Amino acid sequence: MSQTIYGDGAIRRTSLYGSSIENTYAGVQSFMRRNYTRDLTGVDVVVSGIPLDLATTFRSGARQGPAAVRAASVQLAELKPFPWGFDPFEDLAVIDYGDCWFDAHNPLTIKPAIIEHARTILASGAKMLTFGGDHFVTYPLLIAHAEKYGKPLALLHFDAHCDTWADDEPDSLNHGTMFYKAVKDGLIDPARSAQVGIRTFNDDFMGIDIVDAPWVHNNGVEATLSRIKQRIGDAPVYVTFDIDCLDPAFAPGTGTPVPGGLTTAQALQIIRNLGDLNIVGMDVVEVAPSFDQSEITAIAAAHIACDMLCLMRNRKLAGKL
Description:
Number of strands: 11
Strand order of the largest sheet: 3-5-4-6-11-10-7-8-9
Distance between the termini: 19 Å
Number of helices: 8
Mean pLDDT: 97
Shape: globular
Structural class: alpha/beta
Strand content: 15-25%
Order of helices and strands: EHEEEHEHEHEHEEHEHEH
Radius of gyration: 18 Å
């Protein structure tokens, strides 16, 4: 049963469903005003943050990403999301679980802390939508998701960087080597995985299909979607969106920007048409608000995350969540 609350629904709403009437500029800033709670009973999707940027190779600041994405989501919570035309929270039970806690001064404990954070949520049967933090966070998230859903998973990865540079040190924190490790660990199947928007070079892409940014620009969104779906098929797939997949004109607030990327319009059109995929987990990472302009990067990330939730709402109504 839905419930409408006037003001601060994130801490006053007793139902998992329904939306709040809020002053956009005020109130508790959970993601899209969802309940702030750690009660996982009956929850379909858990939003949480992992404020880590110790694995960055250039500019730090992504530790502030989860807060920035939540703050940017307040306007999204005012109206029915475009172009969907429905309130996803009438049908989808979503909570904001807050942030994963880890000891930033004891780096070797960070990966286990993230894994345990994800295990706790996944054990409830809920799906995860996670905000980084730098992209390293996807590696421990994949470990937990592969435990839950069976390995190897398919990977759909939006990024400027392939993040498959060699790294055989098990305890390293590096946001450019996670998917090298994930392939080596058997967490993801390269033959069922695609990386979209890539515009950096690697001598070995490890068998993953590289749908680079020039290919997307030259062939268009529909061809990109066809290539993604043909590659992944019906495999359980983890979707990770590094915001630097977008061109710096659309996402300057990130640690390792690369020119020539996707437009926000291209990215949103792709995300909105992924409903056929068997998505088991999602994240949006690498928002670094200290480098942002007028919050355009955080706003783009919030819209991408909202569209991911709308996909989950439709899958729930179709009995496929």
